[in-house]
Each structure stands twice: as C-alpha cells, then as structure tokens.
Amino acid sequence: MTSQPYRIRPFAPSDAADAADAYRAGRPHLVVTPEVVAWQAALPDYHLLVAERAGRVVGTARFGPVVESTTPHQGFLNVSVLPGHRGAGIGTALLAAAERDLAALGVRAAHGWADGTPEALGFATARGYLRGRAARFSGLDLTAPLPPLPPTPPGVELRTAADYLDDPHPIYLVDIDGTRAEPGDLELDDQPYESWLAEIWHRPDQEHALTAVVLADGEPVAFSAAQTDGRRTYWSAFTATRSTHRGRGLGKLAKAHSLRHAKARGLTAAYTQNDAGNAPMLAINDWFGYRECATEWKHSRPL
Hints:
Elements: E1 6-10, H1 16-24, H2 34-41, E2 47-53, E3 56-65, E4 74-81, H3 90-104, E5 109-115, H4 118-126, E6 130-141, E7 156-160, H5 169-180, H6 193-201, E8 212-216, E9 219-228, E10 233-241, H7 250-265, E11 269-275, H8 279-288, E12 291-302
Helix pairs in contact: 1-2
C-alpha cells in the first residue's frame, strides 16, 4: 500500500465521511461526525486539506488563524492519517501544505495537538514542534449506574439549553466567563456573540436538550454542554460556571443532570477531555467514574 501515489487537495463536501474516519482513526474517544466535518469546513476561519489515495480520503489537515488570540499571527494546525496509510509521507505532506497556507494567511506560529503515542510525539518533534502542556481524555460507561445526584441548593433550579433556543445570550455569558478560567498557552479575547452562535451554539452535533443549565435567582450561572454522534456516544463539550458562583458545586450539579439526560436517551458511552492541570474538573470527572483512556500533548513552532 505504501507504494500507491497520493495527492493533497482542498476538502470537498463529498469527502466528509472519509475525513471523519481519518480524524477518528485510533481514537474511539472522539465524537466526530461527517456532518460536523462538512459544517466546520464551511466556517470562515477554518481550513481543511485532505490526502486522497486510490480514490479515498486517508488523511486531513485542519488549520486556521486563532482569531481571538491577543497575540497576533497565531494559528492552529492538526493532522490525522489513517493507520494503514502512515509511513508513506502523507502526514508530512499534509503538514507542509497546511503550514504554507497558514503562512500565506499571515500566521507566524502554529499550535496543534499530538496523540500521546511514541509515533505521534516523534512525528511532531522531528518536524520542529516543541512539546507543551498535556490534556487527558477520559471515558465513562453510561450503562453502569451513575453516582447519586448532588443536592440542589436553595434558590437553584435546573433547566436545559433547549429552554433558551429563542435567546441563548444568557448561556453565552456563562460560556465566555468560564472560558476565561480555562488553562491555555494563548491569552484570548472574549469570543463575539455572533461568532459564538455560529461556531458553538449552532454546531450540528450540539444537543441542547442534553445540555443542563443551572439557574440561581432565575439567571443561568452554570451549564454542562453535550454533543453526541446521534447514536450511542456522548461528548462533554464544556462545563462552565460564572466566576461569581464558583465553589458551590454548580458545575458538578449541571454535569450530573446532563449525564442522566444522556443515559435516559439511551446513550451508552461518555467521553470528555481536560487540561492535565485542570485539577477541579478532573476531580469532578473522577467522582462520576470517568477513567483516563488517552492523552495528547500541545505542540508549537514558529513558521
């Protein structure tokens, strides 16, 4: 198979299913659907190249500028190749093509993630990328019993994001407040509301009915956002609490209700990802019974 030629080209909508397979290959903890791949490729600051071999997409490069970065000229870049097609230079070719396109966009530093395997880490290091912070993937068997629901404090009530379809701005306010506390290497400006609507709220896999929202005195102050593959797998996209209400267990309460909604829907597996230094969220996930299933490492290099 390694002798077969390949070509690097821009993504086409008909590539969505194969591109999703290439992204997920060897990563059962990822929730990536063809619908999301096609939707992301249409976003203005998201770029997607594919590697085609024998009429099939066998790898992808996903990249673009980090538009909210307060440091100018920063970009994201991630490459995936199906295991049976590795070792033929496809990943190297995808990376080089994406780096050229990023440079043409004015990006001067690329940031991406590599799986915590010797092969992936060696690939990144050999191409000049420096390893940074780690992230942890964890999985939970939703067919097993969940821990008892934490008590709901006085003055607190539970709803879902489906109650805010007409006006999601209160959810946005919780999201940007929570994002400010997220560990990361780049300092980011708050994402504008219209951009948040397009890139987060309207994601095709976003499950508003499974996203639990905690209200205090009638106002949303915490949520646990859910995405699914539409079949069996639940992805905990983000659990956030407003800074004025942290330390009360409201994020844990939201996630407890979201997981119960998912279990009642019939979903059987839950996954999440957290920065390895995010001790509070890791402790919450450990309490639910999540167990580490994979790691990845941030890598960066100047272009």
